């Protein structure tokens, strides 16, 4: 177990700059998830930590040791690969023992470690099978076992669940979470799936174009996204966005959005000029539907019934991304109806022209 | 029987007839060699397609010749050495060429391919000088060296293609487990490359086993010769007599091991040769 510190980490491949000045601290025993769209550099960042790619600039520390120039085996890291990469010609036991034997451990120690790891992952029955005789979930567990057997200081996961089917993915996600609770070891996990990130992480790192967009707990990222990108990336269905114009910045702020009319919001917009073009974001569950009145009328184009909840899709005023309203089932709304949208004002997000979120103003006047 | 069925039948008959022709064309010479080798010398020039009596006299004659037994031994030593050296160098080279990114990799591959295009005769005199310079004239080591030169390009190409197909993550997993490149090659890649190694190894063996020109040029004395040369130099009682019986017996003797080897590795050879073409 150890902490990991990244300081102004950079990675370039030829003239392409993949990782740009990444600063990050992963605490001892923390479960950190790197998430972002493909090509954002999350896997590269993981491989830099693993030692599979060389660091172009910056410093990487594990515990208090600078490990920039150490080979993977001396960094004390274990890695689970997307394709599992099990050695096909070895049994489960041999797969897990391979690294231990290479570390020149005594046979009894190897045996002890493998058996202990197998017990944790419930692989005891499978020890003498070859990878091709295992199911996807079992292979996944063996891959984890191989990474864990050497008792690394940090466990790295590179999209470990993306090769599994949906139901197995949920099950393995659960197992990984429980494993983390039981072992308490530091884990860094890469995924493009924001649901995996939300459910597993103590701390989520959202990456975009090689830079960290925001770091925070799942709750922080959901409730207070720092940028419009994070707001749109975290949460399913995604947040609704609509253009808004700033009317005044006194006492919180007043904005107007097409169809919604004038809204008085708690955000501090004092840095913005009057008339500034803003972007207004509301999560589907923070929109209420009401009988249409005046200009506030939106047409329902589709209704999805999911059993426990209902998604209502509405024609937007600007752009062509449908607005989504989510509520518990049953719903009385039907396709073709015209309704008014009423956002819950305390849950509305505002983003400036640079897509940065405007912060909620201090409520000192109330005191 | 209607017309359609007739045509179908004719097609079938034609098909098998064609197969029979091909089979006879391919196998008959060998079959005739076997028959000839089992005849006593008195019946040698009578045309028979079937054996009436079996006579092992020719075999007894060649195996009691010390130089022939010695030649077989030389051939085995040379061929196995060529296979071993070619596979060792081929595997390590294919790791470098297939896995390590370096400047000029494509050029190296092309040069290797280019080398294999020279005909043997073109390099014969040059190679002769090299071998004499190294003091390997009339020494099986000289043959091992020259055969390896001609076997290696093919070996390297096939193994490199195969190596490139092994998933990158497998190697990275080995690196994470603390394996050095050498351990990765021997413990992880080697067991997975058996089909390709069986193919290339067997073809290298056959090439070395059958080679004649170099073997004739680079050896001088009976006890350094390999089998193809030894067979060619089997002589009869006079200058005008070719001892067909013993020659056929010797030919059959040295062919049978190859046939057995090819039969054993048949499936492997096919899968090894097509490995580069289609993802398996």
Name the helicity range of chain A.
10-25%
Number of helices of chain A: 9
CATH class of the largest domain in chain B: Mainly Alpha
Number of domains of chain B: 2
Which class best fits the helix and strand makeup of chain A?
alpha+beta
Q: Which structural class is indicated by helix and strand composition of chain B?
A: mainly alpha
What count of helical segments of chain B does DSSP give?
A: 12
Distance between the termini of chain A: 46 Å
Please give the most extensive interface between any two protein chains, plus how many residues each contributes: A-B, 24 and 16 residues
- Secondary-structure element order of chain A, N to C: EEEHEEHEHHHEHEHEEHHEEEEEEEEEE
Write the layout of secondary structure elements.
The complex is a heterodimer of chains A (367) and B (280).
Chain A: E1 4-13, E2 16-26, E3 31-35, H1 42-50, E4 57-62, E5 65-66, H2 72-75, E6 77-80, H3 92-102, H4 107-120, H5 136-149, E7 154-158, H6 166-183, E8 186-191, H7 194-200, E9 203-208, E10 211-216, H8 218-223, H9 228-233, E11 240-248, E12 253-257, E13 261-265, E14 277-282, E15 287-291, E16 298-305, E17 309-314, E18 323-328, E19 338-343, E20 349-351
Parallel strand pairs in A: 3-8, 3-9, 6-7, 7-8
Antiparallel strand pairs in A: 1-2, 1-4, 4-5, 9-10, 11-12, 11-14, 12-13, 14-20, 15-19, 16-17, 16-19, 17-18
Chain B: H1 3-37, H2 57-64, H3 66-99, H4 105-115, H5 120-133, H6 140-165, H7 168-176, H8 181-192, H9 194-210, H10 213-218, H11 227-232, H12 244-274
Helix pairs in contact in B: 1-12, 2-12, 3-6, 3-9, 4-6, 6-9, 7-8, 9-12
Description:
Chain A: Residues 4-234 form the ABC transporter domain. Chain A: It comes from Halomonas rhizosphaerae. Chain A: This is Sn-glycerol-3-phosphate ABC transporter ATP-binding protein UgpC. Chain A: GO terms for molecular function: ATP binding. Chain A: It holds the Pfam family TOBE_2. Chain B: Its main location: membrane. The complex is a heterodimer of chains A (367) and B (280). Chain A has 367 residues and is of the alpha+beta class. Chain A is built from 9 helices and 20 strands. In chain A, strands 6-7-8-3-9-10 form a 6-stranded mixed sheet, with helices on both faces. Chain A has a 5-stranded antiparallel sheet with strand order 13-12-11-14-20. In chain A, a hairpin with a 3-residue loop joins strand 16 (298-305) and strand 17 (309-314). In chain A, helix 3 runs parallel beside helix 5 (136-149). Chain A starts with a strand and ends in a 16-residue tail after the last strand. With 280 residues, chain B is mainly alpha-helical. Chain B is built from 12 helices and no strands. In chain B, helix 6 packs antiparallel against helix 9 (194-210) and helix 9 packs antiparallel against helix 12 (244-274). Chain B is globular. Chain A binds chain B through residues 50-52, 71-73, 77-79, 81-83, 85-89, 98-99, 102-103, 146-147, 150, and chain B through 167, 169-170, 172-179, 183, 187-188, 191-192.
